[in-house]
Request: fold
Amino acid sequence: MIIKISHKTKYFFENTVPRLIQTLKLYPTSCKNQKVLEWNISSNKGEILNSYQDSLGHNIINIYIKNLNGQQEIKSEGRIQTKNFFGTFFGLSDKVNPLCFLRHTNLTYPGKNIVKLSNKIKKKSNLIEFCHYLNLVVSEAIRYKSNTTNNNTSAEMALEKGEGVCQDYAHILISLSKYFKLPARYVNGYLVEDENTKEYFTHAWVEIYIKDLGWVAFDPSHKKCINEKYVRISCGYDFIDASPIKGIKLNYMGSEELSYKVDVNSIQ
Amino acid sequence: MLFSSMFNEVMEGSLVRKPYNKVFNWAEALPKNIILQKQIQAENLFKKIGVTFSVYNNYDVSERLIPFDMFPRILSAAEWSKIKKGIYQRSLAINAFLTDIYNSAEILKAQILPEELIYNNPAYDIRMVGFKVPKNIYSPIIGTDIVRTDQKDFKVLEDNCRTPSGVSYMIENREIMMRMFPELFESLKIETVENYPSYLLDILRSLAPSKCKKDPNIVILTPGPLNSAYYEHSFLADMMGIELVQGTDLFVDSNITYMKTTQGARRVDIIYRRVDDEYLDPLYYRSDSLLGVPGIINSYKTGNVNICSAPGAGIADDKAIYTFMPEIIKFYLAEEPVLKNIKTWRCFNKKELQYVIHNLKDLVVKEVHGSGGYGMLIGSSASKKEILKFKNKIISNPNNFIAQPILKLSTVPIFSKNRLAQRHVDLRPFSLIGHKKFKLVSGALTRVALKKNSLIVNSSQGGGVKDTWVLSE
Amino acid sequence: MLSRTAENLYWTSRYLERADSIARLLEVAYRISLIPNTQEGYNNEWESILATSGIKQDYLTSYKEIKKEKIEFFLLFETDNFSSVKNCIEKSRDNIKMVRTAVTLEVWNAVNTLYYRYQEYVNKKYSSKELPEIIELIKRQVNLIKGTILNTQLLNDGFDFLTLGNYFERADFTARIIDVKYFILLPSSSFVGSQVDNFQWSLMLRSVSSYRAFKWAYGNSEIDYIKIIDFLILNSQCPRSLFFSVEKINHHLTRLKKIYGEKTASLTKINMLYKTLKSSTVTQILDEGLHDFLSKFIKDISSVYQSVEKKYFMTSQ
Reply:
């Protein structure tokens, strides 16, 4: 499938920002599952610097802006050709040992709710089946509801609330997988929605490391493995670590607002 | 533990050991009033220079003078030569180990140490995987804590690869001894320690990043005056003739690191940082850090600046990794370790754990990530209640602990109430390893437990320091 | 030199000068309190002190009423008062501590001594009886530090920043104190030549430690407001006059230009201010309006400082 994506992120600043430094992980993963036919990242302010490839295979881009007035728009757009490998990957340029993804972060630390959930789960000898089962359990653990959780909501807090968005489903699945000693990580990307076309298409899911199979991607908010409708952008320990745009404003006093618009269309 | 079973560095039976011959006679002959007078003089000199360290409690940071004892610690040329050989070997092995675990991880494939010990260790920084560190030197400055257990043997207690401190005391202690007792320096051949700053500069200069084409601009990055080692940071910068900077003195633009000067922005090539990993760059590590420099990691990864020691180098001084140092040395250098480790039980190993929890009374238990003598149990001097409490702590998280026998730290006298009294000491030499270079000044910091029979030498817990002499023949 | 080093040196001496100025103000107030039947003048004096330091409102919020002992404590020791002598001394020391190696051991020791000696008073309950010895301590130690700087520091760019802090503070402080009392300097037919005037004017001079200096400069002739304005604003020999501070700032910014080989906005600005003051007369100032003149001066000096900050301290980077 060829997927056409246009992703705009706009920042509105109340006052002049003396110095802004950004790190972008906005380049789609290049592997056999997805071929980048065309991809372009631009910013209306500052210069785009292609800095380096990091240990997880992200092409890191940096932007340095001095005395930024008003707004900044970061645009990434292009076309990706995808294939369905039923969640598995071929040709990831990832140098980090999967065992590193057994470490917990604040957002994925297993508290009493995760432990309670895990008690209901019977370990299966077939790891693939077991992961599908975990994915299913998580998909039913909370209800999908937007605007009830935020960027600081941990897996534990989302479970407590009983509702959340894709990010919360992902954190719960990561936490649970690690609890069962399966390395797991957070993935950001785009999804071509089948039905009930929603306003935005940025999505988050989970990769679990299964021995002999490698990283396998599960989408707990849709109860399935990923397929050719998914485009992988960035990964990390959790939402914060994987986030595609990080910025630091120096000597800035004032507020900041964010808006974004994503168009994802399949062409074929 | 019987005091007499520990090695006495000065006396061999009723005879004085050779390196101490002159000094011991001199010390015994010193009149009481002179000792007192000299002690006051030493203290005033330290105060005047401003050598202080900060002690933290929950409420306040206060400055204190580190207690100084005038009786020197002396090592013969032969003893020092062994130490030097052993430290050189360890520095090579540590850097080879770091290069390996951040790249092909051969040592793990060979199953020399368990994968989990590295990969599940927060000190292992996954952002450093596959990154080519300038000249493959991750940890150019290493402080090795050594204890002497008998006539022949020096054993390594700990390797400090992150930001070992104390080198300023080594130099200042010497300065003060030379001012107070010049006659001793005339009659004995004592190796100098004052070349340390120029050695350090030389080593750092050899580690310029790939994009630095000129004479590199080197700075020391300090967390600021509230840090306990701030005096040392400013001392070193001053002696090396380089700038001492804080995070806010630097900024990164287009992946290049600059420092702010009264003559505008000036490019920085090498940073000797005394700031911990997690505070280095709020863009990558703790976003609430005010000590670091946003963008510095970009600058580092693009070869525009070198950060010494490298982020993630701290894993090499993890106490659990320490227990594998003999194997690590053998693996990379195909040599036997010159300096042995202290026998250590690893609590993550079930069998060893059993031994530890049943023998707590005779052991010292340390937290794997702890430092400065905090979070440890000394079985022989702990109450039953304390032992029980610690036992539960170990059982609930065995991976976090190692245990060692109660150390037989050697003894050297101190001037106590105007007479000589034996006290326990350790030794911390500061080695420097750069691109095809190894430097070690012939001298070290000797820390001394000032309380009778105490084995804790840390300055934060009532330890003092001594000048350390290496004789040139 | 590192920008922060320059900035720390600057603030070290700026805070010292402020501590010294406050001590001198307190000295005048103390003097009035020794003169009988001057309750009114006394209160005026205290209010002036609070107004000069720009902290009258802060004080009234914390203490409600103007009371001698409370004001003294507020100015000397109150932690919540940004410009209390205690805070000034601590900030001065904090600043110099960051740049220990940029000053001589003697300078560091001198600042440290002031800090520890003052700390002895900080740590005990304040009693008004001790006011004279406290004032004496501050004045003596600050003079000692300034002398040590002159006597031991290398006369490099660091010395310039150390000196700049001193004179920026003094220019600002003197301008404010004249402004607070500007009404007593205005010619008013009903008061001219009266006892009240003489008393007020002598206080005015004393509050900037210039009473004796004035006498030296103008002999024993009668004090009048024209002489006072001339002395405090335009006199080139009075170390407390605005002109004197401006001349010093001008001198040190010129030196920096020579050392660094670069012309700066701050130098252009101070040059202009210097020339204007040099050619001014008291009549011109009175025509312009004393209050307006002083307000403009304070704004101009602050603008020079902002240029220094931007250029040398690189604070906007």
About this structure: Chain B touches chain C at residues 48-50, 224-225, 234, 237-238, 243-246, 248-249, 251, 259-265 (CB under 8 Å). The first helix of chain B runs from residue 21 to 29. Confidence is low (pLDDT under 50) at residues 54-62 of chain B. Chain B is about 30% helix and 25% strand.
